[in-house]
Amino acid sequence: xxxxxxxxxxxxxxxxxxxxxxxxxxxxxxxxxxxxxxxxxxxxxxxxxxxxxxxxxxxxxxxxxxxxxxxxxxxxxxxxxxxxxxxxxxxxxxxxxxxxxxxxxxxxxxxxxxxxxxxxxxxxxxxxxxxxxxxxxxxxxxxxxxxxxxxxxxxxxxxxxxxxxxxxxxxxxxxxxxxxxxxxxxxxxxxxxxxxxxxxxxxxxxxxxxxxxxxxxxxxxxxxxxxxxxxxxxxxxxxxxxxxxxxxxxxxxxxxxxxxxxxxxxxxxxxxxxxxxxxxxxxxxxxxxxxxxxxxxxxxxxxxxxxxxxxxxxxxxxxxxxxxxxxxxxxxxxxxxxxxxxxxxxxxxxxxxxxxxxxxxxx
Length: 363
Fold this sequence. Notes:
Layout: E1 2-3, E2 6-11, H1 23-33, E3 42-47, E4 57-61, H2 70-82, E5 86-91, H3 110-122, E6 125-128, H4 131-137, E7 144-146, E8 172-177, H5 183-187, H6 190-199, E9 204-209, H7 215-221, E10 226-229, H8 238-248, E11 253-256, H9 270-276, E12 282-285, H10 288-291, E13 301-303, H11 306-318, H12 320-337, H13 340-355, E14 361-362
Parallel strand pairs: 2-3, 2-4, 4-5, 5-6, 6-7, 8-9, 8-11, 9-10, 11-12, 12-13
Antiparallel strand pairs: 1-14
């Protein structure tokens, strides 16, 4: 006897003018919900429109429809709910507090934030990536499940062993990977970066992926050994981006600065996953996003201030054994505990808990 599969339809957030799912759509929904470990218990479809076929649950991701026209959407959602379909909202960032400071760009707009509040309240349940984010949304909808980020092992492979470094035979390459929204995070440690790069000028190179076209950054580093890796247009989809990253990012260690704010306290440890899955050790800001995952000097380094950043940058440049130790522990942690082969079923459990759907038995 088996169980009828849960039929789920994802309304993903998409790239404007391209209608392609965001990378976070793949990481948070499309890949876990289509993973082989759950395919016998969950049937997935996805798109930009509400499904024309019967489903058990519709999952709305973040700012799915950029029109955010609640008056138009509400009758459609009511209609599918009357058919017995449950509605789940998924979000991985505190968009209600994004750019909420005086003088910040108004993205998302107040209208979009109002839409977000309405859809969270209306949904049968909410799935988030962190406990702090669950706490912040709990006053809007108490029916919340936390499912942490995990990576799809089908896209990656066990990493290379780190290259021992010494001044005679090579250059230590370290890097940062992030979107333009993290520009201020990187700028926050410009001083220790500049000091370190100047000190080890002939023995080190810093590579930046994702925000390399920033005039601000280029001016800040001037003639220091910094290079910018541009992601080609053909690598915009998540799968192709991962392939490009594995082929082009060969760092001795990575960095993940993150300013401590009300917004960032709800963020996830995705940078740790991105680095560790490849066997890249990292230095991370000592903020809530990383404190539960990173064990200082065991599987990573937590930096507290500018002097701390400078100290640990120098340490990882000079100490190949420390790099190897951190990389080994981080790599093992991610491959053991944060890959979809073990974590995808948590998505299925969350959907069942929020919808009450256990599946009908069939012979």
